[in-house]
Design goal:
Two copies of one chain form a homodimer.
Chain A lengths: L4 E3 L4 E4 L7 H7 L4 E6 L3 H4 L2 H11 L3 E5 L8 H14 L3 E6 L1 H13 L6 H5 L11 E5 L11 E6 L4 E6 L7 E4 L9 H21 L5 H23 L4 H13 L15 H13 L3 H16 L4 H12 L4 H14 L16 H15 L7 H10 L4
Parallel strand pairs in A: 2-9, 3-4, 3-5, 5-6, 6-9
Antiparallel strand pairs in A: 7-8
Helix pairs in contact in A: 1-3, 4-5, 7-8, 7-9, 7-11, 8-9, 8-12, 10-11, 10-14, 11-13, 11-15, 12-13, 14-15
Chain lengths: 385, 385
């Protein structure tokens, strides 16, 4: 049964090598004249991408104000500085050049710039989002799917809270995906990206009766393609075919297509992981590689048949636990951590993590299932060797 | 390799039983005050759907002018009457209530109402489409995918030409999909719908190197789901689960997701079929069930490996021809014609059909491949017993 749903994803995707040259025209043709250029570290400057983008904007009469220095697990304080800058300079749009963290911070700035109130209240679910500046991006890392959805995840470093917003106003107007830009993503972040893309489709697949076999098949198609292309990339990082296929697959993994018709699903792996990256600043995908196998082992008895399906369709193995173990072994193979200790987190930290997750579970509306006892059990799976 | 592409599908889908009650609000909230209500035969009146929609429009202050009587293979003359009515009455939008033919005619009216010139010139590729009235629809038959793409196919009955337009202006603003409305679709049209949905994904799958395994997998997922759900519906026409899964699958089959990253594909089965329905007014899906197996047999030697993949992944058989035969056998099983004679078309008509297709092939830009000789060969496969 396909459950009731609304699907509305208006983001325009421009995909291909060199397509960043389209950005000036896309902004100018929509009447934008001054944009906040959001980026991360110096790599986009060193690679020459930033100056190419700036020249292209200038050629189309689009002025820009730089807001660089976004970090992985983007920080509320830096986001707030971007909001202040956007307001002071009266920009009419935001343009992210970078990976998912840069896009996420750009979205939060876009919301904050139009908000009358505290931005973090939106992340706490206490303030509605009623508008945002139009969002554009040039993606340099394929992983989060932020380029084609309305989500943004920000870390409030003072409170050690890593929370999300999701709003129709946060869909990018235009996202430019040039797979050649992702060829320089190093092996570790390539692995984390693969884990993240798998996490996005695995959540609904295992947390609710899927809407139909179509949805199951779409998810399995995405996971198999992520595994296949990542294996190719690990052997040959400059393989443009695999990089491009991985890039579009990661977008489809969280643009609403796989969850349309699936009702009542949730994102428990993301709930659990966000506390790891909030507390220890590890990469989101690295944290997910630790959380997913543990969560799957804990969750398995609740839905044996879907785990059997997963084992059979994705890994060609017959029993449900073997499917989980195959996924875990693949995470290890590509160099992702699969235990807390692999990320340097000692067992003595478990109570701290449990407390952080328990607070978040309230905000996510998942506290009824993810009690401190349950979270502890899952983290123990993530701790055992 | 994923080839360069632009994906931009802004249609809002509202899916679920009873969701037609949303239509007045969707129109009114966008400022529409007077719409052209396009529908087909009396069944939508008899079922009570039309009066429910009219009451809902009235409750939201949206006036309407009726344009009923759209037929399967919608006619240019009737479309032109709709254009004249839309202009005379100064409607600000069009609302289709019906199946793919009704949506297609509504799109053509939306284009014609804003056009300075002859509508058919757009279908001949001789006049650009620069605007259209906003298009809304409530879908009663799942098949064509028109509810989430920019295509419209119209029959010029005077010239016996069945041609298409494709324009960004022809994406519906909002499409409402209520799977319960499709439970009354009779067995023959259910079969034709299944063939049509399969045809939409099979075209790119077999006419060009697919962009990557992801695209292959998405297509196979859709075909397997169409087969599975149609078999269920044939046994139990009121099976809402299967009707709903079929409905969304048919939408995904032609909304651009399966072809993103696939370059240079074409729609030869549609080219060939349109002449059958133009000349003999048979249902489009019925014509496709005749054309597809014939075209596949002719095309098979050119791309053996993809046919082997199709055979293995969709039907679990090993050789390429068996895959084609399995599909043909399934068409027969669900009651679709698979030979010209099954549709009452004698072999003596082949030259007439070839001439009609040859003219169309010029307009479609496929005349270099689909010469009269090739078309004749394919039609001979469609004729042999």
């Amino acid at each position: 049964m396909i459950h009731d749903f609304v699907f509305h994803n208006p983001t325009k995707i421009i995909f291909g090598v060199g397509k960043e040259e389209k950005i000036g025209k896309e902004l100018a043709s929509r009447g934008h004249r001054k944009t906040l250029l959001v980026y991360g570290q110096e790599s986009v400057r060193r690679s020459g991408l930033l100056s190419r983008v700036q020249q292209n904007l200038a050629a189309h009469g689009v002025d820009f104000i730089e807001h660089g220095g976004v970090v992985s697990n983007p920080l509320l304080s830096h986001t707030q500085a971007g909001v202040d800058l956007a307001r002071r300079e009266h920009v009419d749009s935001v343009l992210a050049v970078g990976g998912g963290s840069v896009v996420d911070e750009a979205k939060a700035i876009a919301v904050g710039a139009k908000l009358d109130g505290e931005l973090w209240d939106c992340f706490l679910g206490n303030a509605p989002i009623r508008s945002a500046l139009p969002i554009f991006d040039i993606l340099t890392i394929a992983a989060t799917g932020s380029e084609m959805n309305g989500n943004s995840v920000i870390l409030n470093e003072r409170k050690q809270q890593k929370y999300a917003i999701s709003s129709p106003y946060c869909y990018p107007t235009v996202s430019i995906l040039n797979p050649a830009l992702t060829c320089s993503v190093p092996a570790d972040y390539t692995a984390y990206s693969a884990v993240d893309a798998i996490a996005h489709v695995i959540e609904a697949y295992f947390t609710q009766e899927v809407g139909g076999n179509l949805q199951n098949r779409l998810v399995e198609s995405i996971i198999k393609t992520v595994i296949e292309t990542t294996d190719t990339i690990m052997a040959d990082p400059n393989h443009l075919g695999a990089r491009s296929e991985f890039m579009w697959t990661a977008t489809l993994a969280l643009n609403g297509v796989t969850t349309a018709g699936v009702s009542g699903f949730s994102f428990p792996n993301h709930l659990l992981e966000h506390s790891l990256s909030a507390l220890y600043r590890i990469a989101h995908g690295a944290g997910l590689a630790i959380i997913i196998p543990a969560w799957m082992k804990w969750h398995l008895p609740q839905w044996e048949s879907q785990y059997q399906r997963f084992a059979r369709e994705v890994f060609g193995v017959n029993d449900s636990l073997s499917g989980v173990q195959s996924l875990e072994a693949w995470f290890k193979k590509i160099g992702a951590p699969t235990r807390l200790a692999d990320a340097g987190i000692p067992a003595s930290e478990i109570p701290t993590i449990v407390a952080n997750i328990s607070d978040a579970a309230q905000v996510w509306g998942l506290a009824n299932v993810y009690t401190p006892e349950v979270i502890t059990q899952i983290l123990q799976f993530a701790n055992e060797q």
